[in-house]
Design brief:
mainly alpha, globular, about 150 residues
Length: about 150
Amino acid sequence: MLLNIFVFIATFCIMEFMAWFSHKYIMHGFLWNLHADHHKKDHDSWFERNDAFFLFYAVVSVGFFLLWQNNILPIGLAIGLGIFAYGLAYFTVHDIFIHQRFKMFRNADNRYARAVRRAHKMHHKHIGKEHGECFGMLVVPFKYFKK
C-alpha cells in the first residue's frame, strides 16, 4: 500500500516534467500543427485541435489501468491514477482557471494563482512556434511570484 502511494505521488510529480517536455519539444515541435490553434485561434469551435493531446495521455493512463487489471504490472493502478490525477489538475488549472473554458474559479486570487496566470501569459505572448517560455503548468518559476 505504501509503495502504491509513493508511486502515485511520484507519477504525479513526473507528469509535470512530461508536460513540460511534451509541450516544449512535441507541441512546439513536430506537432505544432495540432497546438497552433491554442496560441492563435483560427476557427469558431469550442474545441481546439490542441485538445487531441488529452487523448494521448488518457490512452497511456488507461493502458496502465489495463496492465494492473490483467496482473501484468502490480503498480499499474498507481501509475494510471497518477497520470489521471495530473491530467485533472492540468485541466482544472489550464482550461478552467486560466483559459476560462468553463466559467469557474474566476475570483481565485492568491500568490500562486497570480504566478500561474503570469507565467502562462508569458507563454502565450509568443503566438508562433519559436521563442516560447514557461512550458510547464503547475510548477511556476519563482520570478512570477514577485509583485
